């Protein structure tokens, strides 16, 4: 069975606890990067990470960008969104089908 985890500030990950998703609070870049690597080693299939922390560990996340698993999804924190999560989704959709269906623009080359 695949495991799902979420990395982020305490208040944000706390909201996931009631859904049964394993939560991993992180306060800084080092803690987030270490936790991300540990979840990958433990074969988590889906890892949610807040945009604020993801921005700081982008290089580590990019190591898994072209792999099937884990799926690393950026989510807004309780402080709001930076817009990079939806931007990543838009890029992935545009790469997959060649058209930006989220903002309804044709793909660029």
Automatic annotation (TrEMBL):
Which terms in the Gene Ontology molecular function aspect does this entry carry? proton-transporting ATPase activity, rotational mechanism
Keyword set, alphabetical order: Ion transport, Transport
Keyword Hydrolase in the entry? The reply is no
Q: Which family does it belong to?
A: Belongs to the V-ATPase F subunit family.
Q: What's the name of the protein?
A: Vacuolar H+transporting two-sector ATPase F subunit
Organism whose genome encodes this protein: Thermosediminibacter oceani (strain ATCC BAA-1034 / DSM 16646 / JW/IW-1228P)
């Amino acid at each position: 069975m695949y495991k799902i985890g979420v990395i982020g500030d305490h208040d944000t990950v706390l909201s996931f606890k009631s859904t049964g998703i394993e939560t991993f609070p992180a306060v800084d870049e080092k803690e987030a990067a270490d936790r991300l690597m540990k979840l990958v080693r433990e074969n988590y299939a889906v890892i949610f990470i807040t945009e604020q922390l993801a921005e700081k560990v982008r290089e580590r996340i990019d190591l898994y960008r072209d792999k099937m698993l884990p799926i690393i999804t950026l989510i807004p924190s309780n402080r709001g969104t930076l817009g990079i999560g939806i931007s990543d989704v838009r890029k992935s959709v545009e790469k997959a089908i060649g058209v930006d269906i989220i903002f309804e623009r044709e793909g660029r080359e």
